[in-house]
Automatic annotation (TrEMBL):
Keyword Ligase: no
Region of interest called Disordered, as start-end residue ranges on this chain: 6-25
Sequence ranges of Low complexity compositional bias: 11-21
Molecular function GO terms recorded: 16S rRNA (guanine(966)-N(2))-methyltransferase activity; nucleic acid binding
Designated name of the protein: 16S rRNA (Guanine(966)-N(2))-methyltransferase RsmD
Enzyme Commission designation: 2.1.1.171
Organism encoding this protein: Arthrobacter caoxuetaonis
Gene responsible for this protein: rsmD
Keywords per UniProt: Methyltransferase, Transferase
Length: 196
């Protein structure tokens, strides 16, 4: 069973998405990812966007660890219902609505969200059915919604190629954990402070 690893809601069990078509982030990958994000000192007070959220595991982990606001975006009805349950659990522990769930197509959500809303950390764990061109389109649309110093994390199968980054995003790192590859990117022109 998946759980929240650390922070205010650490140890709390998470509901999982039933059925196929999703690729849940394992606790091992999640631990490694958040250890790295903690080293970037990006989580405290951050605005976090979890696209193709699945169960919302990465977003609620961020809220537990001090993110100010988390938006979970998931289109599938069953997965969105799981997001609502996991968000409610963390919001109850925190005593505020830190996590919001949006049942929407990712591309539509990004086009409708106010231009003034900027995120410090974005997770993308797209389903197998999203091809490389579709992912490139999402990344392009995302560009204008990133805060200065933002970090974008794309989670893909190790069999998938590196994402096609738009001109406004630059990859600064990648990590492989078994069958999972994490790609890390930041707005183009950001100072090189993170590891490579």
């Amino acid at each position: 069973m998946s759980r929240i690893i650390a922070g205010a809601a650490g140890g709390s069990p998470l509901s999982s998405v039933p059925g196929s078509g999703t690729r849940p982030t394992t606790d091992r990958v999640k631990e490694a990812l958040f250890s790295r994000l903690e080293s970037y000192e990006i989580l405290s007070g951050a605005y976090v966007l979890d696209l193709f959220a699945g169960s919302g595991s990465l977003g609620v982990e961020s809220a537990s660890r001090g993110a100010a606001r988390v938006d979970l975006v998931e289109l599938a009805e069953k997965a969105a219902a799981v997001c609502h349950r996991n968000a409610a659990l963390v919001n109850k522990v925190l005593g505020r609505e830190a996590v919001r769930v949006h049942r929407a197509k990712v591309e539509t959500y990004l086009l409708r969200v106010p231009e003034a809303l900027k995120w410090d950390l974005v997770f993308l764990d797209p389903p197998y059915t999203l091809d490389e061109e579709g992912l490139a389109g999402v990344l392009k649309t995302l560009e204008s919604h990133l805060a200065d110093g933002a970090v974008v994390v794309v989670e893909r199968s190790t069999r998938s190629p590196e994402p096609s980054w738009p001109a406004g995003l630059e990859r600064f790192s990648e990590r492989v954990y078994g069958e999972t590859t994490l790609w890390f990117a930041e707005p183009a022109g950001e100072p090189e402070e993170k590891d490579s």
